[in-house]
Amino acid sequence: MAERFSWYCAMLGTLMLMLSSCELLTSTSIIIDHHHQNYKRGCDEIYVVREGETLQTIGEKCGDPYIVEENPHIHDPDDVFPGLVIKINPFAATHHKDHYY
């Protein structure tokens, strides 16, 4: 009888361990999918600067490290303001061969 009880306890423990692993995997997958969707979303080609944004934050957000080069109407990179319209090229890093991540 004690042997049977011990076997049932071992099976129950194994089942609980397996279920907890599946739940962790599902939660991790959801988090990864959420970050992947945010990354893929990117920005439109025409972007309107919002309050508190800088060219650096926009470049990071949109995946375009060459905003200044692609927007000759921006004479001073530190002089961006809400409402300024800029061109975004999220695939700019692939067009410039001298830039590596």
TrEMBL record:
Gene3D superfamilies cross-referenced by the UniProt entry: LysM domain
The keyword Translocase is assigned to this record: no
Pfam families: LysM
Signal peptide bounds: 1-22
UniProt KW keywords: Signal
Record-annotated LysM domain positions: 47-88
InterPro entries reported in the protein's UniProt record: LysM (IPR018392), LysM_dom_sf (IPR036779)
The protein's name in its UniProt record: LysM domain-containing protein
Organism, as annotated: Arachis hypogaea
